[in-house]
Amino acid sequence: MTEIRKRAFVGIVGLVSAGLFSIGCGSSGNTTGTAGSSGSAGHAGGGSTGSAGTTGTGGTTGSGGTTGTGGGSALCTGGPLTGAPLVTDFSDVTATDGGTPGTATIPGKGGISGYGGVAVAIEGGHAHATGSVTAGTYAGVSLYFSNCVDATTYTGVQFTLTGSFGTCDMLKMGVNFPQDEPLPPASGHGTCPASPGTNCYGPGSVFTTATTMVTFANMSGGGAVATVTSDAQNRLTGIGWGFHGPAAAGEAGAGGCTVDFTIDDVKFF
């Protein structure tokens, strides 16, 4: 996963080379205009001059081809999430209490993982995230979906947070879409190329441990998808809580932060 992707709050790693660029086909070429009719001949012996023929109709311009989706992968179409509006209360996670961090999968839905120095384990019926984030590193927790989710009937995401984010800054909670995901097979649905300067991060909203819900309308600042449009809302690939390790004032490379928090009862509302 790239640093720019980490800002998207997605813990999916492993980028793969792009496929062919899809080119849309144009419509049929211009139609031929109809020929003008011949003028009628004048009468013999000084008859009147024949009238001019009618000008033929010009051909219509063919429509342009449809622009193909970049990255060699078509955008997925969202479907219903099993058990929605509940995303997970972590009772359905396959990892047992105290299980190895990074192995928490949610059958039929996806899974949850940490990145940037953060590990996630399922403990006491919730997701427990811990770790040390070095200065200048973007880190967080990603709750990802196996298939694109249609969330157009919902207003946002509700959840419970407890614990501490230490001195971490840039706390943002957001959602992701194929355009913000790395190219397959890293995420399975991503269309964002890994080329330098490409903004592969999704829109988000500031959060604290006191935050219990965030609306899609309040999420902004994304790269390929700047805000959560209705089209984007039909293609959710994940939910994330991200933050950044600050540098100590006047000390290059020093700083960072330590986190220890839990996430529970994630649902759409």
Named CATH topology: Jelly Rolls
The averaged pLDDT comes out at 75
The CATH class: Mainly Beta
Instruction: Please bin the fraction of helical residues.
Output: under 10%
- The count of β-strands is 12
The CATH architecture category equals Sandwich
Stretches where pLDDT falls below 50 for ≥5 residues? Answer: 1-72
Q: For this structure, what is the CATH homologous superfamily? A: Galactose-binding domain-like
What is this entry, summarized?
The protein is built from 2 helices and 12 strands; from the N terminus they run αββββββββββαββ. It is mostly beta strands and 269 residues long. The N terminus is likely disordered.
Helix/strand layout:
Blueprint: H1 3-6, E1 86-88, E2 105-106, E3 110-115, E4 118-123, E5 126-133, E6 138-149, E7 156-164, E8 169-176, E9 204-206, E10 213-215, H2 230-233, E11 236-244, E12 257-268
Antiparallel strand pairs: 1-12, 2-3, 3-6, 4-5, 5-12, 6-11, 7-10, 7-12, 8-9, 8-11
What does this structure look like?
The structure is a single chain. With 269 residues, the chain is mainly β. It contains two helices and twelve strands; from the N terminus they run H-E-E-E-E-E-E-E-E-E-E-H-E-E. 38% of the residues are buried. 3% of the residues lie in helices and 30% in strands.
Features:
269 residues, mainly beta, Jelly Rolls, six-stranded antiparallel beta sheet, disordered N terminus
